[in-house]
Design goal:
With 300 residues, the protein is an alpha/beta fold. It contains ten helices and eleven strands.
């Protein structure tokens, strides 16, 4: 079998950002509406700082307003909740994202649930999670978590219809695994959610026409776990230290070199799912702005 097709998330994300920018230009011209995204960063986590900078830069590049709020790691949960309430009430802010992880003295869920569900562009609020599970439409449509949404857009672009395909999602997090399963169900896939306690995990993975790996364990899924011709979406981003002091490198949750010999298509790491997450965040912000203004949201 020839080597797997590379699903280029970086190129798809660039196209999605272009579509977002066009919609923003249209909203400004026709509605006098500039979507605004507020990002709250608590503490000095280096990875979070890089991520927040990138979000701010791309928000501005697409013509939206970017509001960054940095708070000290020692800030109280009450102070953070007060900031969230302030942003909930600000009509210039259509999307609110509190960067996770939060310091250990805070309750992540309590903070997420303080965000107005209409402005919850991360899609983590319990109301949005519930609406995703029940297949909410129209006014009850959920904000969909960005990473699973990005995975779905890549799958649709590569495969077209997903109806009737067998999908296995390895990982059961609230951020990726669970919502990914719900999205695939809505596409009429037959979905299995697998995890570290799954009996004979390799055999379960071999049943998948679509295999989504979201476990956070470097190269855990081997080539012989993959059904020949399957489409593999690797959500993992793991930093591996180089041997003998060599340069560190990023790898996914899938052993890519092995997988390429078996799979029909696969996302690379880096350059696969990663760029899609921020692009989908920008799309979600436009969607949120339209819904709050009573305007039909574009279909990205």
């Amino acid at each position: 079998m020839a080597s797997a097709v590379t699903i280029d998330g970086k190129a798809f994300a660039a196209g999605l950002r272009e579509r977002v920018a066009k919609e923003v230009t249209k909203l400004k011209a026709e509605q006098g509406l500039t979507p605004g995204l507020a990002v709250v960063l608590v503490g000095e986590d280096p990875a979070s700082q890089v991520y927040v900078r990138s979000k701010g830069k791309q928000t501005v590049e697409t013509g939206m307003n970017s509001f960054e709020h940095k708070m000290d790691a020692s800030v109280s949960q009450e102070e953070l909740l007060a900031k969230v309430e302030e942003l909930n009430a600000d009509p210039a802010v259509h999307g609110i994202l509190v960067q996770l992880p939060l310091p250990s003295h805070m309750d992540d869920l309590a903070v997420i649930d303080a965000i107005d569900p209409a402005k919850d562009v991360d899609g983590f609020h319990a109301i949005n999670a519930g609406r995703l599970m029940t297949g909410g439409k129209g006014a009850a449509a959920p904000m969909v978590p960005c990473t699973p949404l990005g995975c779905l857009l890549l799958l649709r672009d590569h495969l077209g219809s997903l109806s009737g395909l067998t999908a296995v999602v390895v990982g059961r997090s609230n951020i990726v695994g669970k919502p990914m399963g719900q999205l695939l169900l809505q596409e009429s896939c037959t979905v299995t959610t697998a995890h570290s306690r799954t009996k004979d995990l390799p055999a379960v993975c071999r049943e998948a026409d679509i295999l989504v790996a979201a476990v956070g364990r470097p190269e855990m899924i081997r080539g012989d776990w993959i059904k020949p011709g399957a489409t593999v979406i690797d959500v993992g981003i793991n930093r591996i230290e180089g041997e003998a002091g060599g340069k560190a490198r990023l790898v996914g949750d899938v052993a890519t070199a092995e997988a390429r010999k078996v799979a029909g298509a696969i996302t690379p790491v880096p350059g696969g799912v990663g760029p899609m997450t921020i692009a989908c965040l920008l799309a979600n912000t436009v969607t949120a702005a339209c819904r709050q203004a009573g305007i039909e949201a574009p279909d990205f």
